[in-house]
């Protein structure tokens, strides 16, 4: 009960779907816009560079949240699923930024009246829109693989700004909101890609 109550207090009300496959973004109040630079630590820079992770540069003010152990485990699951799908670090950045916007990297179940339609999981995918069963879309590996399958079908996704690539898959009512998570997503990929 405490977990459900905690998640419900995160400010999930007000979500809409603009005829899309997934719910609009979750607007938690725990994100703090920051002005972060694009540098990664020396250890991270040895394996992944900013040009690979953020080829178009970040767009707009960036947000950042401190992650719990559960959220960090979900980051690692997204990276593992990305590697298993044979996709690169940039795909992981797009995936993690999308999950940061949609669920703050929390694997959300159905939230009753506060739920946007039947959206669930890290990517707020909807069983009624063909993303899979509730059990499937609340599995981080499955939901990431489903997102990546959609991303692969977007012609030229690697050449698009992150928010456009994410929006083409998600069809969110808030298409520009993915951009605010690009720096943190890149930092997380740099930190965990080779771990």
Question: How would you describe the overall organization of this protein?
Answer:
- The chain is mainly α and 195 residues long.
- The chain contains 9 helices and 2 strands, in the order αβααβαααααα.
- It is globular.
- The relative contact order is 0.22.
- Residues 1-46 have low confidence and may be disordered.
Per-chain topology:
Layout: H1 2-8, E1 32-34, H2 42-45, H3 50-53, E2 62-64, H4 69-84, H5 89-103, H6 134-137, H7 140-152, H8 162-170, H9 182-192
Antiparallel strand pairs: 1-2
Looking at this protein, list some descriptive labels.
disordered N terminus; two-stranded antiparallel sheet; 9 helices; mainly alpha
List the uncertain runs. Answer: 1-46
Strand content: under 5%
Rg measurement, Å:
15 Å
The structure class reads: mainly alpha
Oligomer: single chain
Instruction: State the order of secondary-structure elements, H for helix, E for strand.
Output: HEHHEHHHHHH
Say how many strands there are. Answer: 2
- Largest sheet at a glance? 2 strands, antiparallel
Arithmetic mean pLDDT: 78
Order of adjacent strands in the largest pleated sheet: 1-2
State the share of residues found in helices, binned by percent.
40-55%
The N- and C-terminal alpha carbons lie at a distance of 34 Å
Note the total helix count.
9
Shape: globular
Task: Summarize this entry quickly.
The protein is mostly helical and 195 residues long. Helices cover 43% and strands 3% of the residues.
């Amino acid at each position: 009960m405490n977990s459900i109550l905690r998640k419900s207090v995160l400010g999930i009300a007000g979500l809409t779907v603009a005829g899309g496959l997934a719910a609009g973004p979750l607007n938690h109040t725990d994100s703090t816009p920051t002005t972060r630079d694009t540098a990664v630590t020396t250890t991270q820079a040895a394996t992944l560079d900013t040009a690979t992770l953020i080829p178009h540069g970040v767009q707009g003010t960036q947000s950042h949240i401190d992650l719990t152990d559960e959220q960090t485990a979900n980051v690692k699951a997204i990276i593992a699923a990305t590697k298993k799908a044979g996709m690169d670090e940039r795909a992981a950045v797009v995936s993690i930024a999308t999950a940061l916007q949609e669920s703050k990297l929390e694997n959300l179940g159905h939230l009753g009246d506060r739920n946007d339609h039947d959206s669930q999981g890290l990517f707020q995918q909807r069983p009624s829109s063909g993303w899979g069963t509730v059990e499937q879309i609340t599995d981080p590996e499955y939901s990431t693989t489903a997102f990546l399958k959609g991303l692969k079908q977007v012609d030229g996704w690697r050449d698009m700004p992150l928010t456009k690539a994410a929006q083409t898959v998600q069809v969110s009512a808030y298409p520009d909101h993915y951009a605010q998570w690009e720096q943190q997503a890149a930092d997380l990929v740099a930190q965990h890609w080779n771990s």
